[in-house]
Amino acid sequence: MAVVYPAVRVATHRALAAREQLVQTYPEWEAWREQARTIKAEVIAHLDDYLEQLTRQVQSWGGEVIYARDAAQARRLILEVAGRHQVNKVVKAKSMTTEEIGLNSALESAGLSVTETDLGEFIVQLAGERPGHLTAPALHLNREQIADLFHARLGVPRQTDPALLSRQGAAVLRSSFGDAQMGITGVNFAAAARGTLVMIENEGNLRLTATVPPVHLALMGIEKIIPSLADLEVLLRLLPASATGQRLTAYVNFIHGLKNQGSAPQAFYLVLLDNGRRRLAAHPQAREALYCLRCGACLNICPIFQLGGGHLYGQVYPGAIGILLAPFLGNGADLADLCSQCGACSLICPVKIDLANQITRLRSQSVRHQALRLLVRATAAIMARPRLYRSLEPGLRLVRNHLPTSLQSYLWGSGRRLPEFAPKSYHRSMEERKN
Known about the structure:
By secondary structure, the chain is α/β, with parallel strands linked by helices. It has three domains: 6-277, 3-Layer(aba) Sandwich (Rossmann fold), CATH 3.40.50.10420; 291-367, Orthogonal Bundle (Fumarate Reductase Iron-sulfur Protein, Chain B, domain 2); 369-434, no CATH class. 52% of the residues lie in helices and 12% in strands. The protein contains 22 helices and twelve strands. It has a six-stranded parallel sheet with strand order 1-12-7-4-2-3, with helices on both faces. It has a four-stranded mixed sheet with strand order 8-5-6-9. A hairpin with a 2-residue loop joins strand 10 (260-261) and strand 11 (264-265). Helix 1 packs across helix 12 and helix 16 (319-329) crosses helix 18. It is globular and about 90 Å long. The relative contact order is 0.13.
């Protein structure tokens, strides 16, 4: 069975409550959702034009723009930049796009030291895990587990108070910025009209990552473009509210122009990543998945995510949006069965992506889901006939106990196991009790 993370349900419910309380103070909320959807639809419909405009504007202020068609090319190009500047230490701000291309392992395999500077990312890096949520990487871990991890890996006194744990992490990370030759960040929004990159955060580590090292490299999915900075206002209202119930994140960083660092300006590189996005943009039904702001609201509201967390999906992008992205940005996994069809994800999405109906569409095309549906129907037919079930039970138990793990993963999903049979049938237990 899937691993259950009680901390996930507690944290997601807290985020949902904060969001609901804030949204009640926004009478314009539904109008903002429509406006944001229109902005994103415009960009995806004219993606090449906006990419050309953004590239031209970033180059005009001194940045170098690099286009990567897939994850492998993106890793290679970033390593080339690191080699050009003789980089051996890298600091990173939180970026799901770097997780998407497996950047950390590529850098480390090349002999570079990589430090995640977002506290949640730093925690999962220490734990050797992938992020369990789009905006809260260590959501699946509670304070006791983090205290044990810090004590074991950092050699600090075991503290379970969240404020003290944060200070312990910050104290370890503080020296990383000055020692690094390159800082790597993601990008939340890129205004094509002026070539301005917008990055939001709550801890202040991103601005240090972007300004202190002599080289700053920003990795961005090509769908993160917006037409102009005027479009940013509504998006900055929707994204923090949907993610954490905040009116605004603690820091909103704008990158436009090279930063002076003593005798020479900082080198800047913008890597524009395709990795399946153009193929998704060309799909008339599925393309709206590219409207996603990566707020994580559809994860927070999902009853399946609340039970098993992000690792249940076996993908970088979990939850309802992850189900839609997996065939294009992921490994092609069929995750359509990881949905209760409650429809809450569509109602909460800040850009009104029709997540529930899109997942239903995927289910209608899913070979595995069709096989599961036949299996469930057959099981129901057998269990509706008690004598037939009792006669088949020994054989079913034998098949279940000897079913190869690979076949279980295909039928039930990676990281999950088929339910176990009870050691003895109910009737046999009753007969033994009588005797």
